Amino acid sequence: MNQFFTYAFIFLLIFACLPAAADSTDIHENAGTRAMTFLKIGVGAKAMGMGESQVAATDDLYASYWNPAGLARLQHPQLALMHNEWFAGINHEFVGVAIPIGNIGTLGTSASFLSFGELQGRDREGNETTIFRPYDLALVLSYARGFGKSFAFGANAKFLREQIADESGTGIAFDLGGLYTFSKMPLLSVGFNAQHIGPRVKFIEEAFGLPFTFRLGAAYRASSQPFILTMDIIRPSDNDIAIAAGAGYTIANILELRTGYKYKIGGNDLGAVSGLTGGFGLTLLRFQIDYALAPFGVLGLTHRFSLVANF
What we know:
- The chain has three helices and 18 strands.
- With 311 residues, the protein is mainly beta.
- It has one domain: Porin, CATH 2.40.160.
- The strands form three sheets. The chain has a 14-stranded antiparallel barrel. It has a two-stranded antiparallel ribbon with strand order 4-5. Strands 10-11 form a two-stranded antiparallel ribbon.
- It starts with a helix and ends with a strand.
């Protein structure tokens, strides 16, 4: 039975990683119609190195983004830090803490901050005005609890803020996630995450909906080999469905090598190569240090560095 799931996941992984012969030029009807789109930027180098396929595999503090139910897997308090060196001088930062509290569950809090650096303001005639520093911010409270050894449930409550020059918008959002591990097949897990559920956000004089996203995924860990295979189906409200797949292989319980591919049905906007990711992780005593590399077509390469500390 284990070999069946191994071969099935390998087949699905290869299938998902096959790029289309040509990218579609069609634009989704809801593209550009959502507020707080920074919420769609993933956190944690481990997840990004595996093509963003983490709904059923996440087991550290970054689960607060990929599937809050995964926080129920924490055995010790954790601190997580991430720096995402994006393109065009944009930086994405994440910090969070989570604490398991016995039978009560796991409580966590985190913050995600997207900075665009300094931009030159201009008036309607094109004349220079003042320098401004736009940013996006999400403050998150998380809770997760396991029910037996098989099922876990988690939720997030988020305060959101977007600032551009003298204009700003604020809002709230919620995430709901579930995770199930088959009792007779403890190496196979499935999960879901409904992200960014909330009311419309008013910015200047118009209100916009949030970028609601539904993720459904599975993860398989081999019993006799130190590798993991993952696959997610991602359904955003403002874009086409995407399929993400990833693989990780651990050497000597210290070094994990990772790769993944995320393919949007109809073709990736920045080219087929833009869906390919890779990275590695190092486990040193109580610390997990991760790195991920992701190409963004003509925009260049992006680098993510993240840390998880167990206490």
